[in-house]
Amino acid sequence: MQTDEELAQGVQRGNRDDLAVLVERHHSPLLGFLYRMTGGDRALAEDLVQESLVRLLRGIHQYVYPRPFKPWLYQIATNLTRDHYKRADTRHTESMPEDALSLGAADEPQPEAALLLRSEARQVAAAIRELPEHQREVVIFRYYQEFSLAEIADALNIPVGTVKSRLSIGLKRLRIVWLEQEREL
Questions:
Q1: What is the pLDDT of residues 93-130, one digit of tens each?
Q2: CATH of the domain at 137
Q3: In whole angstroms, what is the distance from residue 170 CA to residue 139 CA?
Q4: Nearest 5°: CA angle at 121, between 120 and 126?
């Protein structure tokens, strides 16, 4: 099986089959990432995935081997998300659709357990939305996308020490928000 980096080099040489493999390999994880980054707006996440893949194709000549491909792709997606929210006509909503757990859920739990999981997922999503963008990004990269600290640093173009700091502060803030939510219930 070819690595992402080998496939990216193939795309640079014009191999459409390599592009198809990259898209197939990264579409669902990228959708899950962007879904979380957009606070559960599936339509927006799907639009951002498509735009990320278009930009991947347009900018593939900028990819330089041996840089890891995955952080490079996620840097594109992260920048698109940031740009989307910077636009003056964009308003970020706080809604959390019922299908919050549907992305990547393999086995369906019993109805009672599913209800509890959905409720907890909404609480976690709401707590994550309370974080500043720079902390929310590293938390999602680390705990939802399972990126290493080095991969997060590469994707966000920041030092590993900054990733560690943002992650630490973000997790502390999450605990505070979570405790506040628990008290309200």
A1: 444 444 444 444 445 556 666 555 666 777 778 888 88
A2: 1.10.10.10
A3: 7
A4: 100
